[in-house]
């Protein structure tokens, strides 16, 4: 398998503290790869290492099959990125900023500037200095700058920050277009699975600097569990009846009033009947499945604990 990005045991320490720890990740050409993790997980640091902005303490990085070295410069002509907040010359207009970027990248194509601005829906800002833009407009301009040279790989750090709901929807469509029509490979970080689950092909989960898991969204969806959820004010009594009358062993008690049963031996009717016959009042009893967000929270250790 040829990967566009491949890291081998990459770690980064700051003042003796490891903030990225032994990360081995692989991004296939043409994929939208979601790098997920809560604040401070190490997503930005990992992306900065891919862009040679931060030197790994140990480990190796390959980009486009080539080992990343301090002097690798040509590689970055094939990569577009937005890391943290995009920075611009505030007194210049959007077009002037993009023209300057073209010059810097050795790429000049007036048509590409207009096309990029149209792609991100930032067309009626002629004559306005970037310093007067809102955060969302700056994010759009950052995106225009990143895609203007049609890079093969696009690295976006929390790109949804600052966008309104319409902007988020447009942004997801843009990612799909860049992937499907422009055949770009995309690495997108987020702290919320919900923001990228609809577009990502693969997810890598980072927590406390450690790479917990890398899996396709398809596998992630198939790992969602089904369960029966009982809401009852008599949780302890219900658990006792389930265990002793029905032999149910695979269940969790959540808080004071909820039980989730992960085995399908008994129907909803049978469970209801047994609980009621044993004087256990029930508020509801329903068949459910975990959402991807629940799954993600479980992976990063923020899910419910076993009773
Ligand atoms: N230059 C630095 N010096 C010291 N510590 C740093 C430096 N840069 C990052 N860190 C620390 O490394 C850890 C990971 O930070 P990083 O910004 O990579 O996480 P993140 O997952 O991108 O988080 P967020 O979503 O909040 O941006 C944090 O504890 C941060 O304080």
From TrEMBL:
Pfam families listed in its UniProt record: ABC_tran
InterPro entries reported in the protein's UniProt record: AAA+_ATPase, ABC_transporter-like_ATP-bd, ABC_transporter-like_CS, P-loop_NTPase
PROSITE patterns, A to Z: ABC_TRANSPORTER_1, ABC_TRANSPORTER_2
Gene3D superfamilies registered for this protein in UniProt: P-loop containing nucleotide triphosphate hydrolases
GO MF term (any one): ATP binding
Keyword terms of this UniProt record: ATP-binding, Nucleotide-binding, Transport
Domain ABC transporter span(s) in chain numbering: 5-233
Keyword ATP-binding applies: yes
Similarity remark: Belongs to the ABC transporter superfamily.
Name of this chain's protein: ABC transporter ATP-binding protein
């Amino acid at each position: 398998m040829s990967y566009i990005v491949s890291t081998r045991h990459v770690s980064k320490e700051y003042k003796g503290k490891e903030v990225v720890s032994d990360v081995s990740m692989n991004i296939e050409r043409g994929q939208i790869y979601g790098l997920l993790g809560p604040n401070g997980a190490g997503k930005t640091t990992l992306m900065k290492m891919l862009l040679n902005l931060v030197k790994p303490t140990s480990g190796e990085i390959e980009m486009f099959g080539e080992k990343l070295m301090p002097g690798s410069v040509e590689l970055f002509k094939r990569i577009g990125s937005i890391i943290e907040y995009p920075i611009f010359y505030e007194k210049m207009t959007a077009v002037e900023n993009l023209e300057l970027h073209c010059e810097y990248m050795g790429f000049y194509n007036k048509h590409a500037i207009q096309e990029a601005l149209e792609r991100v829906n930032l067309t009626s800002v002629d004559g306005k200095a970037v310093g007067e833009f809102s955060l969302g407009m700056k994010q759009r301009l950052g995106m225009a700058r990143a895609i203007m040279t049609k890079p093969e790989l696009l690295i976006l750090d929390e790109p949804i920050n600052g966008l309104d709901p319409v902007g988020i929807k447009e942004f997801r469509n843009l990612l799909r277009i860049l992937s499907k029509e422009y055949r770009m490979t995309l690495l997108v970080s987020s702290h919320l699975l919900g923001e990228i689950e609809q577009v990502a092909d693969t997810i890598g989960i980072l927590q406390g600097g450690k790479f917990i898991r890398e899996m396709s969204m398809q596998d992630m969806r198939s790992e969602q569990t089904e369960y029966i959820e009982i809401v009852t004010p008599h949780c302890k009594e219900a658990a006792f009846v389930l265990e002793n009358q029905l032999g149910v062993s695979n269940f969790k008690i959540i808080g004071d009033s909820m039980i989730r049963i992960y085995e399908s031996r008994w129907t909803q009717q049978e469970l209801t009947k047994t609980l009621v016959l044993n004087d256990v009042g029930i508020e509801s009893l329903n068949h459910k499945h975990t959402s991807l967000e629940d799954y993600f929270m479980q992976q990063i250790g923020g899910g419910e604990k076993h009773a």
